[in-house]
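Hi all, long-time lurker, first post. I run a small reading group and we've been trying to get comfortable going from sequence to structure in the token notation. Rather than ask abstract questions, I figured I'd post a concrete chain and ask someone more experienced to write out its structure so we can walk through it together at our next meeting. Sequence below, copied exactly:
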Amino acid sequence: MAEVIRMPLLSDTMTEGVIAEWHKKVGDTVKADDVIAEVETDKATMEVMGYVEGTLLYIGVEKGKAAKVNEIIAIVGKPGEDYKSLLGGGNNNGQAAPEAKPAAQEASAPAPAASNADSAAAAEALKNATVIRMPLLSDTMTEGKIVAWNKKVGDTVKSDDVLAEVETDKATMEVIGYADGELLYVGVKEGDAAKVNGIIAIVGKKGTNVDAILAAEGAGGAKPAAQAAAPAATPAASAAPAATPEVAESKDGRVKASPLAKKLAEEKGIDINKVTGSGDGGRIVKKDVDSYVPSAAPAAKTSAAPAAQAASFTPAGQEGHTDIQLSQMRKVIAKRLSESKFSAPHFYLKVDVNMDKAMEARKAINEVSPVKISFNDMVIKASALALRQHPDVNSSWMGDFIRQNHHVHIGSAVAIEDGLIVPVIRFADQKTLSQIASDAKGLYDKAKNKKLQPQDFSGNTFTISNLGMMGIDEFTAIINPPDSAILAVGGIKETVVSEKGQFKVVNIMKLTLSCDHRSVDGAVGARFLATLKGYLENPVTMLV
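-- Answer (accepted) --
Happy to help. Here is the structure in token form:
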């Protein structure tokens, strides 16, 4: 059936969004990953994807007009499908675009009576309820994991209450329902994920027919009553192991034991049928065989063993593994970097930089700077100035054209517990070293505390990844889309060099530039590195 697309929550302070541009018109075919519109929020202008496939049947908000969060902005379905029943409870402002009319006229055949009845029941139910969907909380998000529910079924909900905390690929953010009433339905358990635009909850008047809404939306899911009943079965199930028989047998009479336990029992000459299992369902595991004490046996059997026989080997532990569930951040890191590595033709340029003068300059600068300047701050500043001189590197491959950015936004990769995130220092070429250091420290702290907002980690035009502080001399990095290049920074190391026939010790830092050959040629990248090297080897030039 037809699917509604609602105004997503694109920032934690957003209450409404203005449609800046529609990329589709009524009658157009829509794919799941198509950008259907651009929305201007209180923080930035971001893209909205429908995550559904079909034909665009209805546009509810004209370009330049605003829509509340969770308000219906479009409907996608089959050509000619009757979607009007979906508008009854959509909190829509009634601003249907003129294009919606032709789509309704394409209806060719009436729907079956049962389908009409279901739609009517859903429309009636939606008059007294609001469907809460998984919002789009970042520009790369496709699903979100429910970290915690702050309300349970039956609780009273106000429009500004935080219903749940959702973990995305970038941060953990709060979800507000923007609806008053009772929490009638929770569709996703804590720890489980839901696709963007998928139903996660329903809020409304007590007694509303939730099943009709779920059936009409095609969302499925358990009834609220079933969710409440499920935990009651747990204590009875957990009591079962207390009655574990001495011999763990399956229904077909076979002994339930791990392969290692069987092998170990055979090596030790133990009858596996006499061992009591402590595993799931009475399954015999290695520790059961190790701790097995057989009943008393005749002494003659013991003396029959060869005197010179070596003791059998018993491993200290047993084979095993731990499966770690992927976080939303790790999923997106894997997806985006795989796409980058296998679609963008990478090539690499390396250069050694003499950091002697940079070390002296940093010491002098820190004596007067209001904040402590790091070597990474100096690399960010030097890179930003070099990008200003080499705009071809400050670009993005867009498929059928190259976008050359006029601004310089430097992404600085930060490792956190769940993976890697890239906070962005905006207009880095225009900022002083102390301003860059202050911005970087604030962003790094927010990243580690999962407090970054979408505007903090989006919009990069170039990225720097620094592993020097972890003792890495040099490495290559994968380009961070949509950038055309990324700079990998190694540690500063004392190195013996020959200069004019004399050997001396200098402090060398190795830089590796990964370039997308579709938009950056080798000579372009080499000239950029030469300029960057010049700034770092003579830092005073960055102040001119």
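A couple of things your group might point at:
The chain has three domains: 3-86, 120-211, 331-542.
The longest helix spans residues 328-343.
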